[in-house]
Amino acid sequence: MFIFGRIHIIRSLMILLASKPELIIPTADSSLFTEIDVDSVVENLRRDGVCLGIHLPNYVLSEILEFTNQTYYLGNGRFELPFTLSNKEEEEAKYGKPFLFGYHYKPSRSCTAIKKLGDDPKLRQIAAKYLVGEPILKSTMLWWSFATPVEQLDERLRFAQGLFHYDLDDYRCLQFLFYLTDVDLYSGPHAYVKGSHSQKKLQYQLSIDRDKSERDLINYYGSERIVNICGEAGSGFAEDQFCFHRANIPTKKDRLILQIKFVLNNYSFS
């Protein structure tokens, strides 16, 4: 999948040929997202690769934030560097430098509000209609991206932070992302290349390297198709992970985001 999944025609053939159980679209009666029009979201995703305007209810945001203020994270994604927000500076001092980011994997196991989002019937409706198959919840994740000192910018790039790329978790993959902090141009907004999920030149499809420079993408797609997503805490969006995207590097303020990812096939053994 990793080798051939990047080529549009092979992706389409594999999806077409794959045997699928009868697709059961869940009803949306109990959804947290009463204002969302499922078909409109799916239409925008098919056209642009991203659909904005999926906002968390305030009470759900509050419940998630209460959890995020108390739980632990993995400094720079390393299991030997756990920290909480209350002891972050102490743990950074032991490490010898500030953490660039912090992950909490599978928060849906510990946070009821996040579990409800993963099970939400409208989010699953969107995933089922867009993926054209029964969606599997592959993962949930909380991701802090901390404002980076100038002297650590090179280190951040070594983590591939700030580079445009696309992901290959499956032949089709859809993620929902929710900002849990206010995000502006100085706090690492998510960025994507509009329409790039279905419009990649052959060179991009055949290249093993999925990372691309902003200049290269501007030369091919035009600067007007690179979109930075800013918004208040609670704002969210859906994204086809085959779309070129990146997390911009925060320069002044930290960013916390929640990711909920659906696939058709789960190749993970975890």
Topology:
Blueprint: H1 8-17, H2 38-48, E1 50-52, H3 58-68, E2 72-75, E3 82-84, H4 88-95, E4 101-105, H5 112-119, H6 121-131, E5 136-145, H7 153-158, E6 173-179, E7 190-193, H8 202-206, H9 214-221, E8 226-229, E9 236-240, E10 245-247, E11 255-263
Antiparallel strand pairs: 1-9, 2-3, 2-4, 4-5, 5-11, 6-9, 6-11, 7-8, 7-10
Helix pairs in contact: 2-6
Key phrases:
270 residues; alpha+beta; Jelly Rolls; 8-stranded antiparallel β-sheet; 3-stranded antiparallel β-sheet; 9 helices; 11 strands; globular
Mind explaining what this structure looks like?
By secondary structure, the protein is of the alpha+beta class. The chain has one domain: q2cbj1_9rhob like domain (Jelly Rolls), CATH 2.60.120. 29% of the residues lie in helices and 21% in strands. Strands 1-9-6-11-5-4-2-3 form an 8-stranded antiparallel beta sheet. Strands 8-7-10 form a 3-stranded antiparallel beta sheet. Strand 2 and strand 3 form a beta hairpin. Helix 2 packs across helix 6. It is globular and about 50 Å long. The two termini are 18 Å apart.
Summarize the structure.
Helices cover 29% and strands 21% of the residues. The protein is of the alpha+beta class.
Largest sheet, spatial ordering of strands: 1-9-6-11-5-4-2-3
Please give the domain count: 1
Question: Which CATH C-level class is it?
Answer: Mainly Beta
Structural class of the helices, strands and pairings? alpha+beta
Record field, number of beta strands: 11
Termini Cα gap: 18 Å
Strand content: 15-25%
Estimate the mean pLDDT confidence.
88
The level of helicity is 25-40%
Q: State the CATH topology.
A: Jelly Rolls
Outline the low-pLDDT stretches: 1-6
Q: Which CATH architecture would you pick?
A: Sandwich
Radius of gyration: 18 Å
What do we call the CATH homologous superfamily? Answer: q2cbj1_9rhob like domain
Tell me the overall shape: globular
What is the ordering of alpha helices and beta strands? HHEHEEHEHHEHEEHHEEEE
Largest sheet: 8 strands, antiparallel
The tally of helices reads: 9
